[in-house]
Amino acid sequence: MVTSINDNNNNDIDCFSEFVFLFSFLCDINLLFLVIFYRMIFSNKLPLFRFNLTVESESTLLSADKYSLFKSLISHFYQKKEMSNMNQRPVMERTQDSISMSFVSANVDELDPCFMYIQILKEILSSFEFEQDPTEKDYYLHTALWWYTSSSSLCSTVNRALRMMDVSLMIRLGYFIRDLLKNIDEIYLNKINEWKSLGLFKVYRDQGILLKDFDQLKNSKGGLLAFNNFLSTSRNRSIAIFFADSNEINSESTRVLFEITVDPSISNVSFIDLQSISQYSHEEEILFSMQSIFRIGDIQFDEDNHLWQVNLKLTSDNDPQLQALTEFVRNETFPQKKGWYRLGEVLYKLGQFDKAQQVCRVMFEQTNNPCELANIYHLLAMIKDSQEKYKQAIKFYKKSLRINRENLSSTHIDVGASYTSLGLVYSKLGKLRKALRAHEKALQICTPDSPSKISICCNNIGLVHEERHDYIQAQHSYEQALELQQKHLPEHHPVLGISYGNLGKIQNLIGDHAEALASHEKALHIFQRSLPPNHPYLGITYNNLALVYEKLTDYSQALFYYQKALEIDQSSSLGTTLTNIGVIYFRMNDHQQALSYYNKALTIFKKTLPTTNHPHFAALLNNISKLNCSEKFFE
Predict the structure, then answer these.
(1) What does the alpha-carbon distance between residue 285 and residue 288 come to, in Å, rounded to a whole number?
(2) SS3 assignment, position 71
(3) Beta bridge partners of 271
(4) Strand pairing partners for 565?
(5) Beta strands per DSSP E along 391-437
(6) CA distance from start to end of the chain
């Protein structure tokens, strides 16, 4: 009898022994009744935990005090059975890093890169036609949702790849995620009227959260929270709390229970009830589609369960912040580009260079089209350029250029883009003749109906002339660029600020300091109107203003603007600012301070410049040499 009820489950044996032992203290009921009763509980045929036992129906067997203990005991063992079932299910992820969240600030400029990545990935997968279908013949015997709910390894792999932004794995799982998204959307649309008729309902999700992320969550109260993967929740709060109990919490994390209010009448976010689909119907699971977005409400500590409860509300389709966010992401993520190349460009723009490279590797495997290969090489070159691997960047730009010249007209826009990019990298390597030739070829390709491209080429040519100390030619090129930009750009466009800054530098170098000061002040005004206060362009402009005041021998004003530049500048130009401050102190005869700043600049240049032959490096060494000679003279 005992072995027949354990269903080969050791947990049932342990539970049954404990059940019989404890229950024997409560009442005189024969062993056969206990076995049958236990069998009903643990086979889910008697859901005592789901309804209230009444005194009229059960208290006739027990005294009042024993009945109270009986009720608690049954609840305890039913819950223990459910917990046992859930422990056997690895699909419901319970570790503290099992989901990926993005806190969406009201300032879209501070948007979490992971949010944009998932948003674009979702768009790509929803519309992408995969050339290769899954190779396993059994795949089409079931829906993607069936596979997702039946295979714990597949479920965890998909969500882990989304959480870790594992681009390579996500691309290989792309066909499955596409099918899963479609399955969820189709089921949701078929059931949408039923959901709307039910009205408001709540679901729950436990989570272990790192303390630093929890602080960000608290600071984001009233804002938006996006779950970047597929979100499993339960309509049963007790089950969700159990999962919270099972989370591994350490000194760097805290326990959180999300209470999510859903109003199906105001949102079209796809979600489905898995109770009739899943093998684990007792979990009452509601599955939300990838990257569902919620409004963050109250956050309170639950003393009884020793966890934080965070109230969330599924966003309305008319939520103004959500609409602004959607529009921003669409505009900033190359909507004119298609497929994986779009994802690669987005990752590049977000500074996710390694992941962008993963996309390039996958794209190389999937195409033999010459134009597509040229674009991939160009993107790969841009990545290497940003990683300051300039020689590799040149190699890939040349490959892209060669393919385009073989397959496109000599005046095609892509050919011009390759020449422009090559010119910029040559300048970074100090190869100024090659840089000038490349930019001049790019200019020759531009047509009169492309003033923006012509102005870019003129500006780039001016930069090379400036590096070569041909200031008259540089001034001419900068003025050409500025004249074109003033005709087709808004009054406070940042590009105008850049051109004013470039022109101001040349005016300062040729001795026209009053004009230089006016140009830099125009640039500063534009940047202050159009950019955040810590933007690098402001740091560069402060640096340029300091250079003019230095020429005017107004050293106090020069130091003032250099210090303002230091407050902002953390880029490779930091070395230039430190060098310039050293020059000011040298001219003020404070040689100790001058040497201190020169040494700081030298440390920066060793880390950021590709070669010691770079002009900036040579100029700094020359300044140090002058300082040493001056010291010896005074000795």
Answers:
(1) 10
(2) helix
(3) 288
(4) none
(5) none
(6) 105
